[in-house]
Design brief:
Elements: E1 32-36, E2 38-39, E3 46-47, E4 50-54, E5 64-73, E6 76-83, E7 87-90, E8 99-102, E9 113-118, E10 126-131, E11 138-141, E12 148-149, E13 165-169, E14 172-176, E15 184-187, E16 201-204, E17 211-218, E18 221-227, E19 229-236, E20 246-254, E21 262-265, E22 268-272, E23 278-283, E24 290-294, H1 297-300, H2 303-307, E25 317-321, E26 326-331, E27 341-346, E28 356-360, E29 367-373, E30 376-382, E31 388-393, E32 406-409
Length: 445
């Protein structure tokens, strides 16, 4: 096509991802105003990976609230799920033959989470722990048919006073957030993660916050989050069970709302705070602990707090997809009652183009988790009708059906490319799209 001396303006659309600044003049060339159900993983704009059903539903009326990929042995895989009918169930590793491990659990105000423990000594079994703030801690030993309540909990964990999170760190299992002492951190025996009394040890974290809500092992210490504010880095000079051996350093002001609001991302830790801002903790030698920074505002401004239903962030779930170097956040969009919104953060090019964000409203990811497939951990979910799905599938369909992917460039006056044009209307002669079709699909411009 003849271009008749018109100047070519190149827009590289796979560079920077979603930008939602209110002052659109600050949105860079190549950024997107809409990035729905797409991926930028190969520095181009592509339809996001597909979704495939795994097995059959555990029950059409069952809404998943938390799920985990559990290996009681190296060769045995199970999907364990907490459902809204107050049951914990597991499959046979293929999304079939569902078995009820626990039933009759209180659902109201429960915020379920799973933590892996056990294997403390030779010939000890792998164990899966569950807590939810309301019910007594449940423990699944090896590939058992039922869960049992925690054998020897702290004396404070009784009745309705139950921990809101559990966090394995070095030899121990830590927990806390119980209503009767919400600012206290409890540590199990190093030789038995079900025993919190024989070597009883606790730490109280003072601060202007309501309760502890999450914990994560990081760089030799334990990061602990408070609600609605506060992050502490807890480590020790000596593992002896005395408070003076432990050092507690507050590393960030914004806190978290729930146990799955935090996730390790390569060398850092990512979390979302109750106000919808997104933050990153990095290790530092300067303080001997960690430092935190807000990474969401620069490109997304107030998009996240304006888009999400903030009152339900205690149920939001981060996972980290290491193979693709992406963090996925499953959460509720404002005005919705199902968890069908997902925010995705691509960390691979932070050093040169900064954070790259996309979003999706395709999947009902009520319980988002990572699942091993052919030795690779990939994203998976359980939906609102008890069905397990494997995500990011090469087919780029949902159970064989096509879905819409959408991207939109920012309106711009090309002043960033032609310095003599700011504020002036510009007519284009033609548009050339570089498009590499890999299968039958409709492309609408």
């Amino acid at each position: 096509m003849a271009w008749d001396r018109a100047r070519a303006l190149e827009l590289i659309l796979g560079a920077e991802g979603l930008q939602m600044r209110r002052n659109t003049n600050l949105v860079t060339v190549g950024s997107l105003r809409s990035a729905r159900s797409i991926t930028l993983e190969d520095d181009s704009v592509r339809t996001a990976g597909g979704a495939t059903r795994l097995g059959s539903s555990a029950g059409a009326t069952l809404v998943a609230r938390a799920a985990i990929d559990y290996f009681p042995t190296l060769s045995t895989q199970r999907t364990v799920v907490w459902f809204n009918d107050g049951t914990i169930r597991k499959d046979n590793g293929s999304g079939e033959s569902w078995v009820t491990l626990a039933s009759g659990l209180t659902v109201l105000n429960a915020r379920p989470m799973f933590a892996l423990g056990g294997l403390e000594l030779v010939n000890r079994s792998r164990k899966l722990f569950h807590c939810d703030r309301v019910n007594a801690v449940q423990v699944l030993a090896a590939d058992g048919a039922t869960t049992t309540t925690l054998a020897t909990p702290p004396v404070d964990w009784s009745g309705a006073n139950q921990p809101g999170f559990l966090a394995p760190h070095e030899r121990w299992m830590f927990g806390g957030g119980n209503a009767n002492d919400p600012k206290r951190l409890y540590r199990s025996s190093g030789d038995n993660h079900e025993d919190y009394q024989s070597t009883s040890f606790t730490l109280s974290l003072a601060g202007e916050y309501e309760r502890l809500v999450a914990g994560l092992s990081y760089k030799g210490g334990l990061l602990v989050w408070g609600y609605p504010e506060g992050v502490w880095f807890v480590n020790y000079d000596s593992p002896d069970a005395v408070a003076t051996s432990w050092k507690i350093t507050k590393v960030a002001r914004p806190g978290a709302a729930g146990p799955y609001n935090v996730v390790a991302v390569e060398d850092d830790v990512l979390w979302i705070s109750p106000d919808g801002s997104v933050h990153l903790i990095s290790a530092t030698n300067a303080t001997g602990s960690a430092t935190a920074s807000d990474i969401g505002y620069r490109k997304l401004s107030s998009y996240i707090p304006d888009t999400l239903r903030l009152a339900t962030l205690d149920e939001a779930q981060w996972v980290y997809y290491a193979q693709k170097q992406k963090a996925w956040l499953a959460c509720y969009q404002a005005g919705t009652l199902i968890k069908q919104f997902r925010l995705e953060f691509d960390v691979r090019r932070r050093s040169d183009v900064g954070e790259r964000w996309t979003n999706s409203d395709r999947d009902v990811n009520e319980a988002l988790f990572m699942r091993k497939i052919n030795e690779v951990l990939v994203t998976a979910m359980v939906d609102n009708v008890g069905q397990v799905w494997e995500l990011d599938r090469p087919s780029r369909t949902v159970a064989g059906s096509a879905f819409a992917a959408e991207w939109q460039t920012n309106d711009l006056d090309v002043a960033g490319l032609i310095f003599s044009r700011p504020g002036r209307k510009t007519n284009g002669r033609y548009i050339q799209i570089e498009y590499d079709p890999r299968q039958s699909a409709n492309l609408t411009i």
